[in-house]
Amino acid sequence: MQSAGSFLAAAIIAGAVGGVIVGQPSIGFLVGTAAGIVVVTLYWLRDRKRQR
Predict the structure, then answer these.
(1) Cβ–Cβ under 8 Å, residues 31 and 15
(2) What is the C-alpha separation between 23 and 39, in angstroms, rounded?
(3) What stretch of H or E contains 38?
(4) Where do the TM regions start and end (predicted)?
(5) In angstroms, rounded to a whole number, what is the distance separating the alpha carbons of residues 4 and 43?
(6) How far is the CA of 14 from the CAs of 24, 44, 48, 50, in angstroms?
(7) CA of 12: how far to CAs of 22, 41, 48, in Å?
């Protein structure tokens, strides 16, 4: 099984930076976290399917 935590961390940081650019760092952080969770979940599902 592989780890996708780096994708989550990158999405959170990118969301926070994007939020700072538009003047809403908290919302950017939340959007980045949500996007990261989606990516990690999709990665996990793909990895789980491969193991079968």
Answers:
(1) yes
(2) 25
(3) helix 25-51
(4) 28-45
(5) 7
(6) 13, 21, 27, 29
(7) 15, 15, 24
Structural domain boundaries in the chain: 5-51
Which residue in this structure is represented by tokens 């950017």?
A: 28
Give, as one character, the DSSP assignment of residue 2.
Answer: -
The pLDDT of residue 37 is 95
What local confidence, expressed as pLDDT, does residue 48 receive? Answer: 83
Question: Tens digit of pLDDT per residue, the chain (52 long)?
Answer: 467 889 999 999 999 999 999 999 999 999 999 999 999 999 989 888 887 7
27, two tokens: 């919302």
Q: What is the pTM of this model?
A: 0.83
Residue length of the chain? 52
